[in-house]
Automatic annotation (TrEMBL):
It comes from Amblyomma triste (Neotropical tick). PANTHER family: VITELLOGENIN 1-RELATED, VITELLOGENIN-RELATED. It comes from the Eukaryota. The lineage of its organism: Eukaryota, Metazoa, Ecdysozoa, Arthropoda, Chelicerata. Pfam families: Vit_open_b-sht, VWD. InterPro entries: Lipid_transp_b-sht_shell, Vitellinogen_open_b-sht, Vitellogenin/Apolipophorin, VWF_type-D. This is Putative vitellogenin-2. Residues 631-812 form the VWFD domain. GO terms for molecular function: lipid transporter activity.
């Protein structure tokens, strides 16, 4: 009969008994008496502040997990976390200042400034229900209100006449936000549904700023209450009614079915110039300052309402967000024209799918938006594809057709040529990243407007010169600031002369030399129409006043002339300091042969300088966030470099040594290495993950490395990685390429690279301060790096390393 092929046995998935592995690990740990490390537990505090005042504060720590009982129903757990009904009122008298200062004229000057703030929050009890398909339904009702009221006066106190005169202003800001939200969480379907009845009309914002002059009695013996009434009667507006511009505008009613009404008045003089300065010349910080402080005391009264539209009003808003991950053998279903295949690669890629659906529902009309983003990649992560689809039904009354966008971008990264590893300067020389972009839009994704770009990323000329100089081992003759690659390469070569194949500088050089900062591309457009044609005049005006905000795409688009055309572009991203903003030098050649140069064009990202580096779990996302940058502990020759960068001298012994271990109470993993005496494969590796033992070692002088799991030999090839499961969950995966083994455990946050002589270790960020062993505790503090198994701090790296040698009768311990 034929053997049964299940999903768990496919791609090398196997499971083994682990009793012997657990016993061996316990014997190792008992021999060293390793103590658990003290570390800072997870803690977070979230504060809601408004204008510098804390409205509410929430604290989170590991004690929250104790309140979640596994046997409780999901709705009970959610109710414990989200709490019950809360009604909160907060009042602040944030400013209360009165000054009376004598002057040389014999008339005192007074200054009076008062500000009061009121915040109200009504959080009703959340109604939670549990559906049949593990769905969780939540009904959320909230009402938040913020009010700020202030006045300021400055004037002269005519004490001899018991009178005062001066100027001031009265200001009020009121913001109201009611919330009625129905939430459905469907984890089995990967969907989040939000339903929001609009409950219109809704007065969202009221704001006024009224400057005035006054003349009123000044008598310190007068009752305060009568003074307040006297001020209200004596205040005269600083501006006449004919100096104010009244407005009553309506926005978005025809588009969304919800009318945003803005009503009030502004100062008439210089209004057009002031609005132009506000929107086109001020920064976001300046705009906020002008709105809140109003330094020129301009009178204004603004009320913002949300009302049903006059025609086809919207009454409800539905939002649905869905996510799913598609394996290579999963069905590819979508109502968009998706194509996940990446170029000519025959492999069916894995794909992340994110869907967003919006529905503005009314009795007579529904306005719908549907969007989908798909990110596909092959198993070795060298081919990538990003697709975006957008479909909008007619929103306004004069629209008759859908508006659609279909976009696809591909990137093909070069596979590393490990035969060049002996000379790192040539590792990426002559390589390139092929890129392609297809962008279609209009009433259909076929036969309408389109923009296509085909090109490749390569080294800039300056980077090529530096790499050639390193390959020839030439000294630096230029400014050191402009020779960063050259300097790193020479430091790497110096380390290799001392027997360290990949020192710290080699790893940095390998990463930075993979930067391809030159883009050469051909761009073609057909039936070109501005994507936001109705707003083109506003966009053009904005870019006219702020050309520095145009960016790379805006600069390229400015050369689109006519409905159809072509252009050739070359973009060079120079090395820039951390204080500088990402920018590029752009050369565009149009179809008629004219050449245009644009210098220091903002790029706002690192997309125009991708890196082809693929070792040690590197991802280009690491250029944006430190969460994706992991420190490396490497074992080479007779030395080791810890996670925090300290160099440790290793003792001469063939016993197992603890490279790194999870020294929290969880004891998730233990990694050991030993010297073998084999000149071809000088080291052996042993890793305990949970209750499973993994070994990579050579069993004879003339044999290569083999892979064993719980004592049994298993196979792993470049085409067929080995995947190990525990309770139907992948515990770790082993990949091989050119005599290198990569061990990746995503659930446990471990990444290893090993070739029998060199070992590189990376762990997830949540292990910081929780590790022990030769690689240190990974707490980013070198001062306490040499901590032994029992926590003793050593002054000598050699003595520190000896403390982690596992004593055994079948090895030769180091001499003391």
């Amino acid at each position: 009969c034929w053997p049964t092929l299940t999903r768990r046995s496919f791609m090398g998935r196997r499971r083994f008994p682990r009793d012997a592995s657990g016993k061996e690990r316990k014997e190792i740990e008992d021999a060293l008496h390793i103590h658990d490390r003290e570390y800072d537990h997870a803690y977070a505090r979230l504060s809601l502040c408004l204008f510098g005042k804390a409205v509410d504060t929430w604290s989170f720590d590991e004690s929250m997990l104790a309140s979640i009982k596994p046997k409780d129903a999901p709705e009970k757990t959610a109710e414990q976390i989200l709490g019950r009904e809360i009604r909160k009122k907060v009042f602040y008298l944030t400013h209360d200042m009165t000054y009376l200062t004598p002057t040389e004229f014999g008339v005192p000057v007074f200054f009076d400034f008062k500000r009061a703030e009121f915040m109200y929050a009504h959080r009703q009890k959340i109604d939670i229900a549990h559906g049949d398909a593990a769905d969780i339904h939540l009904s959320i009702n909230r009402h938040y209100l913020y009010e700020m009221r202030e006045y300021q006066m400055v004037g002269f106190a005519l004490t001899f006449a018991k009178s005062s005169l001066g100027s001031g202003y009265d200001s009020q800001t009121l913001i109201s936000w009611p919330l009625d939200l129905k939430v459905t969480l469907a984890p089995l379907e990967g969907k989040l549904k939000l339903h929001r009845p609009l409950h219109l009309p809704w007065n969202a914002v009221n704001h006024h700023f009224r400057p005035f002059t006054f003349q009123m009695p000044y008598d310190l013996s007068t009752d305060v209450d009568s003074t307040v009434h006297a001020l209200a009667k004596a205040a005269t507006p600083l501006y006449r009614a004919d100096e104010l511009y009244e407005f009553d505008r309506h926005y978005f009613g025809d588009i969304f079915g919800v009318d945003m009404r803005m009503k009030g008045y502004l100062i008439k003089k210089g209004l057009h110039r002031g609005l132009n300065e506000f929107f086109n010349e001020m920064t976001a910080r300046d705009r906020f300052y002008y709105i809140i402080i109003n330094p020129h005391w301009h009178p204004r009264d603004v009320k913002i309402y949300f009302e049903p539209a006059a025609q086809n009003p919207t009454k409800e808003l539905d939002i649905e967000i869905a996510y799913k991950f598609l394996e290579h053998d999963d069905a590819r279903e979508s109502h968009f024209p998706v194509h996940d295949q990446i170029g000519a690669d025959p492999e069916v890629p894995s794909t992340h799918v994110l869907n967003l659906d919006l529905n503005f529902k009314g009795d007579t009309k529904e306005r719908k938006i549907s969007a989908e983003m798909r990110y596909s990649f092959n198993h070795d992560l060298f081919n990538h594809k990003l697709q975006f689809f957008y479909d909008r039904t007619p929103f306004s009354n004069n629209e008759q057709e859908h508006f659609k966008i279909c976009a696809a971008a591909e990137a093909h990264f070069p596979k590393p040529d490990w035969t060049r590893i002996g000379n790192l300067a040539t590792f990426y020389q002559g390589r390139q990243i092929d890129a392609k972009l297809d962008f279609h839009y209009g009433s259909s994704c076929e036969g309408q407007s389109s923009v296509t770009a085909n090109g490749h990323f390569s080294h800039t000329e300056h980077d090529e010169e530096q790499l050639a100089a390193v390959a020839a081992n030439k000294p630096i003759t230029q400014n050191l600031r402009k020779s960063g690659l050259h300097w790193l390469g020479l430091k790497c070569l110096k380390g290799r002369e001392h027997g360290i194949p990949f020192n710290y500088y080699c790893l940095k050089f390998l990463r930075h030399s993979s930067r391809f900062g030159k883009l050469t591309a051909d761009v073609e457009w057909k039936n070109y129409r501005p994507l936001f044609e109705k707003h083109l005049k506003y966009i053009s005006k904005y870019h006219h006043f702020t050309p520095e905000e145009g960016g790379f795409l805006g600069t390229v688009r400015s050369h689109f002339t006519g409905e159809n055309g072509k252009l050739h572009l070359i973009s060079r991203v120079p090395w820039w300091n951390l204080k500088d903003q990402p920018h590029t030098d752009l050369i565009i050649t149009t179809e008629d042969g004219h050449r245009y140069s644009h210098w220091n064009v903002p790029t706002f990202s690192h997309l125009l300088e991708p890196r082809a580096h693929s070792s040690l779990g590197y991802s280009n996302i690491g250029e944006y966030s430190p969460l994706y940058r992991h420190h490396v502990c490497d074992l080479q020759g007779n030395g080791l470099r810890t996670f925090d960068g300290s160099v440790v001298e290793l003792p001469n012994t063939d016993c197992w040594k603890v490279v790194t271990r999870d020294c929290s109470p969880n004891h998730r993993f233990l990694l050991l290495a030993r010297a073998t005496g084999n000149p071809s494969f000088s080291k052996a590796l042993k890793l305990f993950i949970h209750k499973t033992k993994l070994e990579i070692l050579s069993v004879a002088d003339d044999s290569g490395l083999i892979l064993r799991v719980d004592g049994s030999k298993v196979e792993a090839t470049p085409e067929r990685p080995y995947s190990h499961t525990d309770h139907d969950t992948e515990l770790f995966e082993v990949k091989t390429h050119d005599k290198w083994y990569e061990v990746v455990s995503k659930p446990y946050g471990i990444y290893l690279t090993f070739n029998g002589n060199l070992l590189f270790v990376q762990t997830a960020h949540f292990y910081r301060g929780k590790l022990c062993g030769l690689c240190g505790d990974y707490n980013l503090d070198r001062n306490h790096e040499l901590s032994g198994p029992d926590g003793h701090l050593y002054n000598s790296t050699l003595e520190f390393a000896k403390s982690y040698v596992v004593p055994s009768s079948d090895c030769h311990p180091p001499s003391h």
